Amino acid sequence: MIDDLCQVLERLRDRLQAQNSLLESNEAQTRVSLIDPLLRALGWPTDDPTSVQVEVRAGSGRADYLLRSGDQTILVLEVKKLGEKLDIAHSAAVSYAWELLRQGQAPRYVGVSDGRRWLLYEPQQLKQPRYALDLADSQRSIPALALAFTEALWRRLYTGGVGPSHDVSHSPDTRSRTS
């Protein structure tokens, strides 16, 4: 799994360098070329609406993605086109997450991504991201990036085996550095 994820991350990093101007054209291109391949590499079947829901109404806006495991929402994600400012405060993802919180169904993470940068927040802590990951960060090796994405969003953490009870979020050695 890690080897496959490393290969996908390497391809995405190469794609970012070679096709940056094409990827900056619109949000849909970001989703198809960057977000979906990474989600699939992390085990999320983007064609299965019981696990990955897209364009879900959130108050007056829409959450671009909901990653779900059974009845639990793992991630509410807002997508921006490549290079656009990532602003969690005004995100439709936050509106949707607050609605889930009011219903007693807090998502594990609320995030915003432009395909290159991923900011994942715990819903009760929106001032500081739990994970700040950048596919183009040359200071972080592909294996280190793969481990960080795996820690945050590997589907098997939430669907059994490893289980959601294995909470890596409080382990001092696994907290990802923010940049």
Structural notes for this entry:
With 179 residues, the protein is α+β, with helices and mostly antiparallel strands. The chain has a single domain (2-170), classed as Alpha-Beta Complex (tt1808, chain A). Helices cover 35% and strands 21% of the residues. It has helices at 2-18, 20-23, 27-41, 92-102, 142-153, 156-159, and strands at 52-58, 61-69, 72-79, 109-113, 117-121, 131-134. Helix 1 packs antiparallel against helix 3 and helix 1 crosses helix 5 (142-153). The longest helix has 17 residues, at 2-18.
| Name of the CATH class | Alpha Beta
- For the largest sheet, list the strands in their spatial order: 1-2-3-4-5-6
Number of helices, where a helix is a run of at least 4 consecutive DSSP H or I residues? 6
The residue ranges in which pLDDT falls below 50 over 5 or more consecutive positions are 161-179
> What portion of residues is helical?
25-40%
End-to-end CA span? 26 Å
* Total DSSP E strands: 6
Strand percent estimate: 15-25%
* Major sheet details: 6 strands, mixed
Write down the CATH topology.
tt1808, chain A
Global geometry? globular
- Helix-strand topology string: HHHEEEHEEEHH
Integer count of domains: 1
Mean pLDDT, rounded to whole units? Answer: 86
* Rounded radius of gyration (Å): 15 Å
Query: From the coordinates shown, what is the CATH architecture?
Result: Alpha-Beta Complex
Q: What structural category characterises the helix and strand content?
A: alpha+beta
